[in-house]
Amino acid sequence: MKSRIAYLAAVAAVFAGVRPSGATPSTLVWIPSTDLQAAGTWHLGQDNYFPHEGNSLLDLGLTYGLPKAEIGFDYLTPGNDPWSLNAKVLLTDESASKPRVVLGGYGFGTDSNTTASNLVYALASKTLADGSRLTLGYGQGRKATLGPDNGMVLAGIDKSFNSRWWGAVDYQGGDSAFGALSFGVAYAFNSSTSLILGYDFYNAPGVPGTVTAQMDLNF
């Protein structure tokens, strides 16, 4: 199952009092995944994040699939600069002898002082014999926005249990607003609509964790 789920840095940033932003590519729970939106199709996502205290956050995102690529934008509220962009391209597909590899970027916001995180990443994934998929990669963002801890390891594991249920755990390193350990379980109502429930533990000191509930629609 492919779910374009997490809003990435903007969630932690809003709750921490800083606002680097990240548009959402196809993801696991929090980190980008090696999945792509199918060519010629759209994805609409409504992602809600609920901290233990303070305001909740809503991300509305739209992604379009291209041949071996995807592009997207998100609108985040609350926030003074709500718009940001993302893109991803497929470099190699998975085979028996090699992993699937993608190159992408997200967090391309409209304000160079607050939302231009400009994180670029490379990811590889490989499906194991039991159907689990391992993902590993590295990303680096704009130091002027994220601070000195602007490089980060990306890692995750996900698995489809049947045609309706899917689960994942992922990790994004560093103490910037992007750093988090997350897990989630998704249920597909049909071939185009799914819901994920999960939890995000942010690496940055003092940032409260968030319960997340997200609807995803492909058309």
Textual characterization of the structure:
The protein has helices at residues 9-16, 143-146; strands spanning 42-51, 57-66, 69-77, 83-92, 100-109, 116-127, 133-140, 151-160, 165-172, 180-188, 193-202, 210-218. With 219 residues, it is mostly beta strands. It has one domain (9-218): monomeric porin ompg (Porin). The protein has a 12-stranded antiparallel β-barrel. The chain is globular, with a radius of gyration of 16 Å.
Short description:
By secondary structure, the chain is mainly beta. It is 5% helix and 53% strand. The chain has helices at 9-16, 143-146, and strands at 42-51, 57-66, 69-77, 83-92, 100-109, 116-127, 133-140, 151-160, 165-172, 180-188, 193-202, 210-218.
Summarize this structure as a short list of keywords or feature phrases.
Porin; 53% strand; disordered N terminus; 5% helix; twelve-stranded antiparallel barrel; 12 strands
For this structure, the quaternary state is single chain
The number of helical runs is: 2
Question: Describe the biggest sheet?
Answer: 12 strands, antiparallel, barrel
Q: Terminal Cα separation, in Å?
A: 15 Å
**Helix/strand order, N-terminal first:** HEEEEEEEHEEEEE
Kindly state the percentage of residues in helix.
under 10%
Under CATH, the topology can be stated as Porin
Mean pLDDT: 87
Which term fits the overall shape? globular
Strand percentage, roughly? over 45%
Q: Roughly how many Å is the radius of gyration? A: 16 Å
The CATH homologous superfamily is called monomeric porin ompg
Task: Please report the total strand number as a whole number.
Answer: 12
Pairing-aware structural class of the strands and helices?
A: mainly beta
* Name of the CATH class: Mainly Beta
Q: What is the domain tally?
A: 1
